Amino acid sequence: MSITPSTPLRALSGLSGEPARLSESVLVLIDVQNTYRSGVMALEGAEEAVAEAARLLARARAAGAPVVHVQHDGGAGSPYDLTAPVGAISDEVAPAEGEPVVVKTFPNSFHATELEKVLTDLGFAAGSGKDLVLAGFMTHMCVNYTAQAAFNLGYRPTVVAEATATRALAAPDGTVVPAAELKRAALTALTDVFAVVVPTAADLRA
């Protein structure tokens, strides 16, 4: 039996479904760190997502879009130890000279960080309705909560799906939710109201 999807809250609220244009956006790369590529935090599809994030970064730079890197700090000895290689931003998307790096300790990249100030200094103040392009790790966690926060602050987030990845988790009923299913569900939930989601970097206009 076929299922008819509900009308998204974006449409019911009169919000645009148009993706961001790179030249009119800030690219925010969230936690594209080595920890997600191997070891206890390894994500399904991490290598493909890093490669897509690198393509997105190259397109954003070519379009003249400002780029902000977000890096999670879990403290010494953690999977997010910024003093160790595991916590470093992956080489493929390493910050260029002049590109700010915002360090966070919560899933929401805006919480207790300088991100909002950095965006304001770039001419993208909260409440401006301006576009942010988001990508990184993990889809259901920091990408999700950063997109929600951006929306709540009055930005227009667009998420690039294939430049994100996550991992399988146990559901409350004891079954396992595969990584691909969790990623799909997280992105679908965002499209209801918080963000526009596009498959790849190529789906964004320069």
TrEMBL record:
GO molecular function: hydrolase activity
Keyword presence, Hydrolase: yes
Domain Isochorismatase-like as annotated: residue spans: 25-201
Name of the protein in its database record: Isochorismatase
Keywords: Hydrolase
InterPro entries documented for this protein: Isochorismatase-like_dom, Isochorismatase-like_hydrls, Isochorismatase-like_sf
Keyword Thylakoid: no
Pfam entry (one): Isochorismatase
